[in-house]
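Before the break, one more example. Copy the sequence into your notebook; we will annotate it together after we see the structure.
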Amino acid sequence: MKNLSKLSKTSEYIGKFLFYTIVIILSIASIVMTLTTLGDQSDIILNIAVLAGSFIVIILLFYLLRALFRPIFNLNKNVQLKTSNQITEKEFKTKWKLSLICSLIFGILFIIGTLGLSFLLMIPHYILLNKTKGL
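Here is what the structure looks like once it is written out:
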């Protein structure tokens, strides 16, 4: 039982660490893109609109990621509820499956993003190979 508690706490810590790390990285990226946009514009209304849009995007990303990560790092609480018989076996299995699905979605998002970035980086090499084919 101790190993189960340690494992569920480790899962909670990893989920929270990943959540906050991703939120911080996305917030910094959004702020940097906003600052570069603001440097190009001289219209005050446009600058205010860009700042407001950036702020709204950060808030939307935070809530979207929180909805994805909450089942992942709440699994510790669900394990504790199950071990103290406060939830049924069916409820626990449903919450566990939801946590597993969210974990898979999170993993797939990074795989797709990494694969897309690698394809994007290979495009210039492909064009270069096609142009040097006849040499």
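The longest helix spans residues 89-131. DSSP finds four helices and no strands in the chain. Try to locate both features in your own notes.
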